[in-house]
Amino acid sequence: MTTSTIPPLQQSSNSIAHPVFAASRLGCFVHALCSSRPTNNKILDSVFRCIDHAPISIHEYAIRLGTYMKCSASVFVLAGVLVHRLWEKRPEYFCDLSALKILATASVIAIKFLDDGFFNNAYYAQCAGVALEEMNLMESTFLSCIAFRVFVNPDQYKVAETRLANIESLLYIPPVQTRNLNTPEAAFANPACACEQ
Questions:
Q1: Which end of the chain has fewer CB atoms surrounding its CB within 10 Å, N or C?
Q2: Per-residue pLDDT at 41
Q3: pTM of the entire predicted model
Q4: Contact status, residue 49 vs residue 98, Cβ threshold 8 Å
Q5: Can you give the pLDDT at residue 4?
Q6: How far apart are the first and last CA of the chain?
Q7: Is 172 exposed, middle or buried, given 0-12, 13-18 or 19+ CB atoms closer than 10 A?
Q8: Mean pLDDT, rounded, of the chain
Q9: Nearest alpha-carbon partner for 64 in 31, 95, 104, 29
Q10: CA 111 to each of CA 76, 165, 195, 196: distance values in angstroms, whole numbers, following the listed order
Q11: What secondary structure does DSSP assign to 106-158, as a single string?
């Protein structure tokens, strides 16, 4: 069995070389998918759906994940592919109340698949602002929905990287004022406190 690895990120105009930049672009993508759902489609209650809006924007949340998950930028490119695969299988899961959890879950799955060193789910649950049991359930649900299809060949990766790098030129994303996320209190404040536990 031959295996191929994801090519290293190249410094170019369409490259995503920094995790925070890549995470912010992934946040734009998830926001766009959640905003573009046809209004006539029923939104299903799922493990990803929060009861109420979180007190943090998806942009701020994505920056938080990019900062504190301590992973490579390529993780967020793969996470974008995984989010798209979930969208293809279960578009009814996508709404403004599920965006943060879908973003976090795809990122955790991608970290485990791509990066050699990664933390346990307790750490990622803390980064995501959810309970460990909830993180485990979200991860298993997400993987089941995409039939455990996590592998991306190098050509698919390059296309995904280019699309993610240029996402803002394809979408209108309203400007967001960000908070200072560089303090320990802000780093692990619970952004999804209004979500189901």
A1: N
A2: 60
A3: 0.76
A4: yes
A5: 39
A6: 42
A7: exposed
A8: 79
A9: 104
A10: 8, 19, 23, 24
A11: HHHHHHHHH-SS---HHHHHHHHTS-HHHHHHHHHHHHHHTTT-----HHHHH
Domains of the chain: residue spans and CATH? 19-171 (1.10.472.10)
Give the count of beta carbons closer than 10 Å to the beta carbon of residue 130.
27
Give the burial string for 71-105 (b: 16+ CB within 10 Å, else e). bbbbbbbbbbbbbbbbbeebbebbbbbbbbbbbbb
pLDDT tens column, 11-36: 344 457 789 999 999 999 999 998 88
Eight-class DSSP state of 66: H
Residue 189, both tokens: 């404040």
Contact predicate 153/10, CB 8 Å: no
Distance separating alpha carbons of residues 93 and 28, to the nearest angstrom: 17
Identify the CA nearest to 76 among candidates 34, 128, 19, 124. Answer: 19
pLDDT value at position 176?
38
Q: How far is CA 57 from the centre of its chain?
A: 13
| pLDDT tens per residue across span 126-175 | 999 999 999 999 999 999 999 999 999 999 999 999 988 888 655 544 44
